[in-house]
Amino acid sequence: MGLSIFDLFKIGIGPSSSHTMGPMVAxxxxxxxxxxxxxxxxxxxxxxxxxxSLALTGKGHCTDTAVLLGLQGExxxxxxxxxxxxxIEHIIKHQRLKLSDLHTIDFNFxxxxxxxxxxxxxxxxxxxxxxxxxxxxxxLSTETYFSVGGGFVVSKEELTTSTSRQSKPIPYPFDNAxxxxxxxxxxxxxxxxxxxxxxxxxxxxQTISEDMLNIWSVMKQSIDxxxxxxxxxxxxxxxxxxxxxxxxxxxxxxxxxxxATLDWVNMFALAVNEENAAGGRIVTAPTNGAAGVxxxxxxxxxxFIKDSNDQGIVTFLSTAAAIxxxxxxxxxxxxxxxxxxxxxxxxxxxxxxxxxxxxGGNNEQxxxxxxxxxxxxxxxxxxxxDGLVQVPCIERNTMGAVKAINAARLALYGTGLHxxxxxxxxxxxxxxxxxxxxxxxxxxxxxxxxxxxxx
Length: 455
Ligand code: SF4
Hints:
Blueprint: H1 5-8, E1 11-13, H2 17-36, E2 45-52, H3 53-56, H4 63-71, H5 84-94, E3 96-99, E4 103-106, E5 113-116, E6 126-133, E7 139-147, E8 153-155, H6 156-160, H7 177-187, H8 191-203, H9 208-228, H10 243-252, H11 260-277, E9 281-283, H12 293-304, H13 310-330, H14 335-338, H15 344-358, H16 363-375, H17 393-412, H18 422-435, H19 448-451
The protein binds iron/sulfur cluster.
Iron/sulfur cluster is lined by residues 289-290, 335, 340, 343-344, 382, 384, 389, 392-393, 396, 442.
């Protein structure tokens, strides 16, 4: 173990954690390594090679622009989404890049960024290689990184070895759900308390709760912004933004029926994912494509559950993080590895367990809710139409959020005893993902991506 809550919830920009945020982080890291090695001043040109899923859906997922931003020193949590179009336009027009905002080189957007659609690197489907050359076209440095989901980036070496933070001792280590439940029983702690204690030890931070409330505040801002925006989303699909229309309707009219609360939940999820598709500011939860599920369920708690409060929000997010850690450790949160099960499925499972916790569920009921949340997402493929994180992605977040609420409610009526354990469902999700044909794993080569006609 050794994952932080804030590894699962990262502030960033849309539309994709693995294809936008990851490549931006990788580009930034390569430039920093050049800087540290004193090679930045000698760099005269750069070549970027994208492999596998990054090449196949990179254009629709804005991998190209993310790489340019990262090379210029921008970071996902700091870059102003409103400034991105102007920065990219300037680079392409002048064919010049200012590496880490320090050293300017020529960069031909059409020739120096190469898409290898037919090549998948053996280590991982999301590979990206950077090569720096001097004035004689001699290689100064070459590095390959892998964007392994949720904005996580690792080098080839790190893919197979553990990082230093993973060896830091924590008070309540757990590698799977069974161990997590045992820690809770042995020390009489809730899942949230276990994760918060571990986080304190791992990071030494005294402001964990405040930082988590800040995460919630960024989620809320993405809902608020999504409720204000109208028009169509970027890309050929001309997808109409729906959140603002639903919001205005919900604000003005009395509830249509008893299920009107679900209209709010749908609207919360649409608002976040429309913002994500437009390249706006969002929080990975645990990915960008699935960034609407957890905020929608948390907004449901905030708006509709009596006596909801800040402590509940901290409990919700820390419980969700504990569940996300189990998937990150024992399966994957990368759609290029396991399909949409790893995005919407994981977000649904995290939200289900988290909601169960703030509605009074005990650890066993939380584990049950998280299990239900994934069990009914098993086999979910990733087939984004035109390679954009829009169809089916945006609407799929509404389904994930509603399913999570239902899973939490089902678990709360139970005793915590159930047939399929969370560990078994995580293992099943992983195996199903490995068995899934590659064309259903974020390639836009199958499913809706080939059957929907784009005019
Ligand atoms: S289909 Fe699912 S996994 Fe694929 S891009 Fe959309 S949200 Fe992400």
